Amino acid sequence: MGVINSIEQLEEYRRELAATAKPDLPTVLVCFGTGCQANGSRLVANAFMEIIKEQGLQVDVNIGIKTTGCHGYCENGPLVALRPQDILYLKVKPEDVPEIVEESVKGGRIVERLVYRDKVTDEIVPRYSEIPFYKHQLRIALRHIGTIDPTSIDDYILAGGYAGLAKALRMEPEDIISEVERSGLRGRGGAGFPTGTKWRSCAAVDSDVRYVMCNGDEGDPGAFMDRSIMEGDPHAVIEGMIIGAYAVGSRQGYIYVRDEYPLAIRNLTTAIEAAREKGLLGENILGTGFSFDIKISRGGGAFVCGESSALMRSVEGNVGEPRAKYIRSVERGLYNKPTVLNNVETWANVPEIILKGAEWYASMGTEGSKGTKVFSLVGKVNNTGLVEVPMGISIRELVENIGGGVLGGKKFKAVQTGGPSGGCIPERLADLPIDFDSLTEAGSMMGSGGIIVMDEDTCMVDVAKYFTGFLVEESCGKCTPCRDGLPRIYDLLTEVTEGRGREEHLDMLEELCDLLTWGALCGLGTSAANPVLSTVKYFRDEYEAHIRDKKCPAGVCKALITYSIDPEACTGCRLCAKNCPQNCITGKRKEAHVIDTSKCIKCGVCKDVCAFDAVRIS
Amino acid sequence: MEKISVVIDGRTFEAEKDTCVLEVARRNGIYIPSLCYNSEVTSSGGSCRVCLVEAHQGGRMRLVTSCNYPVRKGLEVKTDTPLVHRIRRGVLELLLARVPDSEVIREMAAAEGVTEVRFRKDEGENERYKCIACALCVNVCAEVVGVHAIAMVERGADKKPATPYNKPSDVCIGCGACAYACPTGAIELKEKDGVRRIWHKDFKMVRCSVCGTPYIPEAQVDWIVSKTGKDRSFFDKCPDHRF
Questions:
Q1: What residues of chain A lie within 8 A of the CB of B159, using their CB?
Q2: 8 Å CB contact between B55 and B61
Q3: CATH code, residues B3-80
Q4: N or C: which end of chain B has fewer CB within 10 A?
Q5: Is the ipTM of this structure higher than 0.85?
Q6: Domains defined along chain A, listed by start
Q7: Which segments of chain A have a pLDDT < 70?
Q8: Cβ contact (<8 Å) for A484 and B97?
Q9: Residue B160: how many other CB atoms lie within 10 Å
């Protein structure tokens, strides 16, 4: 079908697609997210294609024009899911393919060595929906990801796509805004501003031109939920933006995507073109007289361009620097026109809210934070990847139930949330519900949803230094506190971690943090003190150990540790001596070895290779 | 324009809506220090942070830069509170650490009681000697002169104004407006034997036909003539001998 001319025709088209779809046909879904592609999912898909063609099987392989987006469980990629059997295979290699086809696709049996194995009970869990990583999730923003082909608008429509838009176009713009307001949706980009309020303020400004924008400049290290949505379900973002544009009265939208996301750019471009061909973008959408189109603007990779005013300047073709937002973007944003800017995940939630209603959405989450949130769970945890859970779940539930606990049975020490300018929350507060207000109160923030799990081997001063270092690199340099203050904070942290810390350094750190929080220009600067402030607040004893005792309790800061070999545990196997790059380990075979600390560079190779755990750090 | 009333340090003033707090304060004799702001340059301000004041509005308070904070109904400003001075002292200590040789910064810091720097100082005649990266030069060049010869390059602590690739700019007219506007005198402008040197480029100066003083670069005359259609002969004499 070419252009869809009315809302009725859209529904008719969906029925037609459903009539020709074969839901019972065995389907192999090969993940084509960035992570799985990097791990070779393309070769796996090719192997499926070949063998199926060879054997003339009636299987619809998701390849080429039918690939899926990211399933989120990237550390176990390439992922292959089988429908309707609901089996998920992990770390699939091309040579596994004949066995999968023979055993599972044809025989309906499970290839045990490729399914999830519980790290504690050692039980196998073949069903996709029963794997702990997925079982505890509630997927709204990620609703289609991993099940549809992001390059096919038909797949999206068949899965119920654009039904939210159809419903919205029958509503009054004012009622859409009220619906979004009542849903309690807050911006998923970090600040958590109520989305409906933002739309209402923008619609209220007297102007001939308004813009709606999507912030896809996901810059937090380790966060990839927005990339996953843009790659895996681009139409959800586009549909959300069309609804938003209709609600506030905009004719032009922009999606700002960082250039490091080539697959997201490609899939969004394909989706925009397909939506135009179907009459879902462009003039007279679905014959309603409403017109709206979207352009993609590619970012050059500056972290600060994820800040709204810097993002807008960048789209305009200027240097991406923030401006004072004393007059807000809803009043004077892109090209000085009223502008609604929402994050990718926020937009992806909008069609579902319109379709299922504000009450449905508001029934999930907590008092102040409704709905679900996507987190990228990374760090020292067994299961890492993208997870979507209701707001209000505790940090502990997230780490233990979904994350499967801390790696290697180590002690859970803290989580770092909210990206580089977030903060660290200690294990003793792990029962804290994850929502906008609780995290802020605890001295961290929701941010875009990065959760880094840290164990007992993590030095919190070193963590603060790492994130401060990131921010020093990414500060745009426009305002004094951020430009000249952050490098001084970094200096002081270097002094502390290298054993030159003095008592007054703690006060100086706190003073500089206070200066940033009050005095910096944009959100990047005012939140840049969080890594230091939160670690000083919860792990002051670690700072003091570095400063007073010249010790790093976690054994991380090289200047403060020494390596030695426990003569009781050493078997004299010579392995450490052979691997030492400094040749500073001596000892006879079958006798205890000794490290010459004057030559040791503390690289840790000896500890890594020792099979008897005889290398000690003190 | 709509007139509204605004309270600054307990006194009520009338002002046009959206005028910046700093202007309203100065017109009424209230001193707020500033560096990166110039009232003739609308794109200036907001970066140096020395003009921070408390803005109380709608039941909440935040520190704002008075040079670009618009006055609106119900605004109460406090310019002389412990918080304002605490943060200003911090900003000035950082600026002093950045440009320890700038007399302007030394004086402004001393006025707030800051004479010592506890942090690492940026020493020596580096490329951005005395420059506080406030971008006023760039804003003047773009907005007032209209030639866009310089831009802020690099980021973070390395941020500085520069011509493209630090080479002589094709479009610079040598007018020196950047050097004139710079709050810390960080831009080098030298004149010798009828030649001005600025931003790595030499400009031949036009001499006044009366007093013989070289007073304007030829390139600047070209620019003004091309923009305004003014007769070249107008520039034969310097402003002192023109009329």
A1: 476-478, 483
A2: yes
A3: 3.10.20.740
A4: C
A5: yes
A6: 24-83+87-126 (3.40.30.10), 153-362 (3.40.50.11540), 372-458 (3.10.20.600), 461-548 (1.20.1440.230), 562-617 (3.30.70.20)
A7: 1, 57-67
A8: yes
A9: 19
